[in-house]
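Homework-ish question, so no full write-ups if that breaks the rules, but can someone show me the predicted structure for this set?
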Amino acid sequence: MIKNLDESFKYKLRELVYALVKDMDINNAFKTTSRLLFNQELGEFVSFEPYLSEAAVGKQVLSCFSGKKLWVASEQYAEGSKFFDYGIEHEKIKEIQSKPLNVDEIKDVDSLLHAVQEKFIYSGNKTLGNSNFVENSDSIVDSNNILNSSIMTKSNHCAYSYLMQKSEYVFGSTSSGDSSYIMRCFYNNSLKRCFECCTVVKSSDCYFSYNLMGCGDCLFSFNLRNKRNMVGNIQLTNEHYAGLKTKLVGELAEELKRKKRLDFSVVDILQ
Amino acid sequence: MLSELEKEFETTTKLLFGTAFSSIEHYGPWLLRHVPASYPVPSAKSGKEVWVPPPLNYMRKRFNRSKIISFDEMEQVSISPFKPEDLNGATLNDLRTKFVKPIAYYCGNFRYGEHSNVEQSSGAGAGINLFQCEDVYLDVKNIGYSNYALYCENMFGCHGISHSKYGIHIYNSTNVTRCFEVDGCSNSSDLYFCHNCEGMSNGILCFNAKNLRYAVGNMEVGPEKFMRIKKMLVERIVHELKEKKSLNTDIFNVGVHK
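A: Not a homework solution, just the prediction itself:
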């Protein structure tokens, strides 16, 4: 009974802390990232959640003990599988999984499966190593302030993202390492201050660009190597680029502020 | 089909099941059951077959089929027909339609670093004998039907793995050797149907366990009893795989086995 009360109290406290952290840190991180990308704030993080969540990988399941919503990194678990909260339901799972098993009674594979059936409970919300303030996320290692994300290692201030390593200030993005201040970026590496970039490596200050390597200051550019000041794969002077960037990024920001999303992405720009 | 990979599939199945399985392509659909797979599309420039990354990393969207090129064709499409002065007064809408149209091509057949014997793969490199792979890079050898593998050898039908060897159907795992049907495991060897295990060796149907040896259903049973159960399980696997080229039970549905 006391154990239950303790667990319930711990859970409530955690929820309260998360609510505060989510409001303070993720929102602030989102605003910082918006300022760096668009020279202005776009609004509150919460109003962009549907737009950013389009990148998320994983699925919501329920704890078989508490009915609480959990996040699992893999979408492959079969319908009807059972789950538990790895962070706070350890004691409950230990009780079930340490039940003795008489191996001598097992005569075939069916009796083996039957004997261990009740132990098949998958873990969700796995937070490992030195991680703090992680909410509704799975397979998070040595990371802080992570929301609605999967498979994140040594990363901080990230939301609705998947498969990130050594990255920070990441929103609605997938599969990247060594990146910071990125939003809606898919399958990249070593990015700085990018929005809507895909398959871009070792590049910075790029928007709506695909398959760049070693590039900086590119807008709507595709399949380039070691370029700067490009718009639509057209080489511009510093001044020409700066003027056009201010105008176009301003247009992007206005549309984002108004609609809380854009109707097009680098992934399907001509569709 | 890469004959070298075929040989390594035989070696791997021999290690896992005591029986070498030949004709890997017959097991292709089963190997890919839980793997986001590359798919072929004709190049918009040459018409040649280009293997394109699956949608998982791209908000589940497939790239426009009419705008696919091979990685080695990108220089053919990267020059814009427009001049800098054409951009004067251009709006966001002009950019995303008129200006982008002639250059917006998406690449398949990505290759990286020194590589040889790479076939039917959307993204692979720095390795040898890679077949039907996406995002398989860096010191990789003999990998088939897999997505996101780094520093791995002899792995088949896997997704999200690193520093692992001789495995089939391994998912979100690191440093696992001689394993079959494993999800979310690390630093372990000789596991069959295990989930979220760490520091284990010789485990069957273990879930959320750490540092066990010769364990069945999370209980250490000793080498002799373990081998009896393993023999029984492996015989069943071999029988079903030989007969159906597939296995009904896997690590993602074993929890709901009736």
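Now go work out the reasoning yourself. Hint: The longest helix of chain B spans residues 222-244.
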